[in-house]
């Protein structure tokens, strides 16, 4: 497993995505994935208050499963817990919940469900462009001051908004946003193809900003819903409808031969190539791996130590 420095910790460059735990992934499989991930050297769990939430304000099955698993071992202090709050209602993603009441309410429930008195990284799960970025960061500073959150992050925010908030915070001596989570993978995607204009996908412009500022990024949908693995295996028909609409474009399919050739050259799986593509970038990058099956997690982790050279990365462009 490869790691990046993050303040007083080293974060594994493959995070375990716990999105569907307790929902479409039962507790037994969830526990098995968590155990396998930790045994492979992983230390970064990604969840959110909205994951597995049936009704607004209801429980997060993801956080409840993680909390139960943590109570069965003594690993809390050796792991980095990530969760998110202030996600808009699922039925209306343009109805902002980015306010102090929702922030405190969501975090309080997350702490209770996770069975901890703090989270290592807490993200605003969406942005609200009607609010000034410094105003949002100022509101969140109380979470750090109270010791409820060690580090603040943004999920689905543009680099422009992050920079606006942090420029203000540096001048005022306030806590900064220290990490970002957006969609990024070997396969290109846009909010339009994803079908959600409130999310943020990596662009060339934003990528340059992350590189210049050496700003850490956690990447969701890092394997493009298995696009490369399934196309190379001749199982394109098993791709979900969402995966097809979001990632199955001429541009992405043109990368399949390069991915296949590099996997064969290095003796690894296409999934390992997709992970290494992200973990070999110039800025600190973390690929979030999630799956409904233990075998897929094991497959992904098989290339956890792989680093691609500049020429190998260029071959995937």
Provide an overview of this structure.
With 317 residues, the protein is an alpha/beta fold. The protein has 14 helices and ten strands. The strands form two sheets. The chain has an eight-stranded parallel barrel with strand order 3-4-5-6-7-8-9-10, surrounded by five helices. The protein has a two-stranded antiparallel ribbon with strand order 1-2. α1 packs parallel to α13 and α4 crosses α5. It is globular, with a radius of gyration of 19 Å.
Shape: globular
Give me the secondary-structure category: alpha/beta
Contiguous low-pLDDT stretches (5 residues minimum) are none
The radius of gyration over CA amounts to: 19 Å
In this structure, how is the largest beta sheet organized?
8 strands, parallel, barrel
Beta percentage is 15-25%
CATH top level assignment: Alpha Beta
The number of distinct structural domains comes to 1
Name some characteristics of this structure:
single chain; 317 residues; alpha/beta; TIM Barrel; eight-stranded parallel β-barrel; two-stranded antiparallel ribbon; 14 helices
């Amino acid at each position: 497993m490869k790691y990046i420095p993050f303040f007083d910790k080293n974060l594994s460059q493959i995070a375990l995505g716990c999105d569907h735990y307790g929902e479409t992934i039962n507790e037994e499989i969830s526990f098995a994935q968590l155990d396998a991930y930790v045994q492979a050297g992983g230390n970064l769990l990604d969840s959110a208050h909205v994951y597995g939430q049936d009704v607004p304000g209801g429980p997060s099955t993801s956080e409840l499963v993680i909390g139960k698993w943590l109570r069965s071992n003594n690993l809390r202090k050796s792991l980095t817990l990530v969760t998110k709050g202030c996600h808009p209602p699922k039925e209306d993603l343009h109805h902002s919940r980015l306010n102090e009441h929702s922030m405190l309410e969501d975090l309080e429930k997350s702490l209770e469900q996770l069975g901890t008195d703090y989270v290592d990284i807490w993200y605003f799960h969406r942005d609200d462009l009607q609010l000034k970025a410094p105003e949002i960061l100022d509101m969140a500073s109380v979470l750090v001051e109270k010791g409820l959150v060690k580090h603040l992050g943004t999920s689905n925010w543009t680099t422009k908004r992050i920079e606006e908030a942090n420029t203000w915070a540096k001048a005022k001596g306030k806590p900064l946003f220290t990490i970002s989570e957006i969609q990024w993978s070997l396969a290109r995607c846009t909010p339009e193809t994803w079908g959600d204009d409130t999310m943020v996908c990596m662009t060339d412009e934003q990528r340059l900003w992350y590189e210049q500022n050496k700003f850490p990024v956690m990447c969701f949908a890092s394997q493009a819903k298995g696009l490369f693995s399934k196309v190379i295996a001749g199982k394109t028909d098993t791709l979900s409808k969402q995966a097809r609409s979001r990632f199955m474009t001429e541009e992405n399919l043109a990368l399949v031969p390069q991915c296949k050739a590099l996997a064969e050259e290095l003796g690894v799986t296409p999934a390992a190539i997709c992970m290494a593509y992200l973990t070999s970038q110039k800025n600190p990058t973390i690929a979030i791996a999630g799956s409904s099956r233990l075998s897929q997690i094991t497959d992904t982790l098989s290339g956890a130590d792989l680093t691609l050279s500049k020429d190998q990365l260029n071959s995937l462009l």
